[in-house]
Amino acid sequence: MRLPSISSLLCLAGLASLPVNAYDDENVKSISLRTHTLSAPYLDSDFQSRWFDFGGDTVIRADKYIRLTADRPSQQGWLFSRVPLTATNWQIELEFEIHGENNLHGDGFALWITKQRATQGPVFGSTDRFEGLGIFFDTYKNNRPGVTFPYVMAMMGDGSTTYDQAHDGKANELAGCSARGLRKASVPTKARLTYFQDKFLELELQYRSEDSWTQCFKVLAEDTKIAIPSVAYLGLSAETGELSDNHDIISIKADNLYSVNRNSGGRGASDGHSRSRGGSKAPHEKSSWSWFLFKAVLLFAAIAGAYLGWTIYRTRARSSRF
């Protein structure tokens, strides 16, 4: 009889669902989504990625980056998850670098949460008329007066609407912000996209100073419909035209978010859900400890059962020898 592994016993007792990482709100915890997380060296021993596909002009340097496009004209590259992102609430943190030799540069790259995957096209290297969410990091200004570039914007695609290429997405914009200094920044450049179903979609950027996040936008579901498909893939793509840039992906970190307070599904007081204070916090703490103790009892019961089974098996095995 093979003894169960520790991870199997934890899963049996339900303790494997305990948080791995702490979110920035006391009422929200996170579990790492390994299937949508990527970091150096990016590739397995057979020079493939277990969880991501890549194509087009994408080049992978295992010790440094995934380069979607090099600083050369007319390039397109993409990177897409192999399995869909099915978490109800999630956060994606992306580290990237946009840089090149020339003062004139373009066009930019996109972060996708879409029903379609791994299809090259005219929208920052990926397909047009997509269904889902596109976040565009646009570095070249075509025709959009009064807006400073680089410009970061979100578009919610319905599967039939065309991206407004001539006006840098003005007709499609869900929300956005100017981010001067995003290209060739002196600190690691990052984007953090947070989604809580039926509550909000938020994008934060780091490019001014390290560990300092600037909110680009926050869209509330009560004001605007956020129609992310229930089965959607995480992807990245980039494109260069006559002007070019290096569009490098350094790492992707994805987390499944959940609320530890069952009575609130948001991020606490900032999103319309009151946080427990003083004596009102005691019932929640008591409930959490009771649940933890219940899981602990299940864990020890599982270990005891496994040990008992192993002992019986060993006794029978010895008896069979005679």
UniProtKB/TrEMBL annotation:
Region Disordered, residue ranges: 265-285
Where in the numbering of this chain does the L-type lectin-like domain appear? 30-257
In Gene Ontology terms, what is a biological process of this protein?
endoplasmic reticulum to Golgi vesicle-mediated transport
GO cellular component, alphabetical, reads: COPII-coated ER to Golgi transport vesicle; endoplasmic reticulum membrane; endoplasmic reticulum-Golgi intermediate compartment; Golgi membrane
Pfam families assigned: Lectin_leg-like
Q: Which Gene3D superfamilies match?
A: 2.60.120.200
Look up the signal peptide feature and give its range: 1-22
Q: Which one of the record's GO molecular function terms can you name?
A: D-mannose binding
Q: What membrane topology does this protein have? A: Single-pass type I membrane protein
Q: Where in the cell is it found?
A: Membrane
What residue intervals traverse the membrane? 289-313
Q: By its UniProt entry, which InterPro entries does this protein fall under?
A: ConA-like_dom_sf, Intracellular_Lectin-GPT, Lectin_leg
Q: Does the keyword Oxidoreductase apply?
A: no
- Domain of life the protein comes from: Eukaryota
UniProt keywords, alphabetically: Membrane, Signal, Transmembrane, Transmembrane helix
CDD domains the record matches: lectin_leg-like
Major localization class: membrane
Q: What is this protein called?
A: L-type lectin-like domain-containing protein
Organism expressing this protein natively? Penicillium alfredii
